Every structure is written in C-alpha cells, then in structure tokens.
C-alpha cells in the first residue's frame, strides 16, 4: 500500500540498522542494489536515493514515505509531513551539526566578524544564504558538490558543512565559529498519502516500530527514590518524560519516580538528582517503548 525511499550513502547503514531493529528488515540482492523489499503488510516497494533527493521524491508523490536528514528537508523546502525524528548521526547517538567554519588562523570568532562579500562553499546554498541574510552579512555562496574542505583557500574563504565530531575539519586546518543548527534523521510522508486513512495507519505503525527500536538502545529507564521532603526538588530534576511510580513498601514517605532519559545525558542527570536530594538512582535498559500516536 505504501512505498518507501531510504537514504543511499552516509545515512544508509544506520537506516538499515534502525529498520532491522524494528523488525522491518530490508532485503536486497546486493548492497549495491537500489531496490529492496520489506516483509511487512502494506509495504509495496522500497528504493534508495541520495538523502538530498528524498524530500523531493516524497513531496512529488513518487514515494509515500522516506527517511532522510532534517538538513535536506530544510534545504529543499519540500512540503512533507514530518512523522518522526531520530537524533542519531552516521557514527554516534547524537545529532550532527551544520556549521560555519574558517581557516584555523582566521581571526573571526563568529559570523559577525566576516567581511561582506566573503566566499562561502557549501552543499546547502539555501540554508547558507538565509543564515548570512539573518546575520546581516553579504556572502558569495559557492555551491559545492562534495569535498567542501578542499575549496579553501583557493575557491572560498569559509564553508558551511555538516560535522559529527569535527575531526575532518581539524585535519584540514579548519575551525568552527558558528553552529547553524543541529540535525537528525526524519521520517517524512507525502501530505496526500498521510491524509489517506488507510495509508496513514500503515505509516503510523511503521513510525511506532521505528521509534521503539530507536529509543531502546539510545535511552535508559531511571528509577529514583526520594523522600517526600525532597520530592519537589527531585521531580524538577527528572527528565521530561517522567511519572510517579508509587511509594515505598514499608515507608509511605518514600516516593518512587521513573523517567526515560537519553543515555548520553545519564552522568549529568544522576549528579543533579542526587544533589536535589534523591536517595538513590537505578538505571535499566529499555526493551521496547512505543506509544500510540496522537489522534488524527
């Protein structure tokens, strides 16, 4: 019933891992194949495209559903429904960043320090132009088709590009002076397909399966015990997705709280909870966490 576009290239491996973890294994004749299948009721065909192409093929209706980067949804301006977001990148459990960088010996510490007419190489000309307009700087945006670091200094003075760790920039003697935005993967749907009751049900089910598969390894379940005296302070320190789980078996003055937390935030959150008066904090893994989508 629905067709799916998946990313080829940098986001491909993580996309396939996510779908496999959700029980939606993509089968292909070889890793180089641009066509695949998923043994899931309602999924008719799967194809692979460059991440920058996916918002457009979904917007056009060529595909009902696609997984791509939030940066390409913004860059293309495609009119699509964002069904679910996943803050992972190619190699980490954190979102990637779209940044402005200059040579390491440049004196600039921010976009405001760059001269009008600065030459900027980027694969994101629309985002780049809007960024410099908002900053009140005139820039000559040079479209780059890969290896953007190589454009400096001969073809450009600065670049706007994506980074995970910044290692590649440092290797090329470049330095980040601004983070324009953070980006993760997004599951996007064609608006007409999402408005169709039958297709919408399949799309939501796929989104729930993927969200559950992503939450499991990337998050932990915190169980926190606190005294009633410190409940207010401890509750404020709990993650956003939290609830009151009960009271102590023998002491009603002990309150038990639980919450779901990104694994990367665990050390800092535990410190804050204990400082707020928590008696103890227990971490446990999450197998499957899924929630019903909001009503239509």
Automatic annotation (TrEMBL):
Organism: Streptosporangium becharense
Gene3D superfamilies associated with the record: Periplasmic binding protein-like II
Listed InterPro entries: ATP_PRibTrfase_cat, ATP_PRibTrfase_HisG
GO biological process, one term: L-histidine biosynthetic process
Intracellular or extracellular location(s): Cytoplasm
Cellular component GO terms, alphabetical: cytoplasm
Catalysed reactions, as listed in the record: 1-(5-phospho-beta-D-ribosyl)-ATP + diphosphate = 5-phospho-alpha-D-ribose 1-diphosphate + ATP
The keyword Glycosyltransferase is assigned to this record: yes
E.C. designation(s): 2.4.2.17
The entry's keywords: Amino-acid biosynthesis, ATP-binding, Cytoplasm, Glycosyltransferase, Histidine biosynthesis, Nucleotide-binding, Transferase
GO molecular function, one term: ATP phosphoribosyltransferase activity
Known function: Catalyzes the condensation of ATP and 5-phosphoribose 1-diphosphate to form N'-(5'-phosphoribosyl)-ATP (PR-ATP). Has a crucial role in the pathway because the rate of histidine biosynthesis seems to be controlled primarily by regulation of HisG enzymatic activity.
The protein's name: ATP phosphoribosyltransferase
Tagged with keyword Glycosyltransferase: yes
Domain ATP phosphoribosyltransferase catalytic: residue ranges: 50-211
Pathway the protein acts in: Amino-acid biosynthesis; L-histidine biosynthesis; L-histidine from 5-phospho-alpha-D-ribose 1-diphosphate: step 1/9
